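Recap quiz, item 2
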Amino acid sequence: MNTVLVLSALTIFVTMALALTRALKGPSVFDRIVAVNVFGTKTVLIVALITVISGNHDLIDVALVYALINFITVVAVLKLTRMRDLAASGEGDITDG
Amino acid sequence: MAELLINVLSGILLLAGGVFGILGGIGLLRFPDFYTRLHAAGITDTLCAFLIIGGLLLQVGLTLFSLKLLLILLFMIFTSPTASHALARAALAAGLQPYYREGDSNDAAMTGESSSKP
């Protein structure tokens, strides 16, 4: 069973490499953000897999916190590219309906 | 017997998750413009997380650990589409035009301009 887990982890690593390539190449800033978002999601999965492979079950908290931070990061960077200021609010905010 | 069944099922889920992850990565790398890349990445992101965490859940049984895995899964199911939506919306608002072939109707490219203020 451990073999399948390691194989699955390897495929996730390949995906992370592909996403990193897009993040380095990406013509627009949004391409880079979506690549970093994919990279973060795959990091959560890899930490969960490593937790089960190594049997050290405390490590899952890292994955939980990383999943929370990843979403906040994407929204914060989007706001930063749009408003040039994280504290700003008003016309043209991406949180407007 | 039951353990073998669970192992096989979990293995299938884990490998399917890995395959979908790679497919999403290839789509992210090879598609022609931002919106098609977002389509590839956004869909496979959610599906890959669902399959791999599902496979891990079958492995570990019913403990506090599986509860935390379920929490991660729940959070990803909510945030991954939300992040994709926010990205697409921000790109449209920034004036990024969707890709379309020459000779196709221009409507798809124009809706972004007119509907940015609903």
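Chain A touches chain B through 49 residues (CB under 8 Å).
DSSP finds three helices and no strands in chain A.
End of item.
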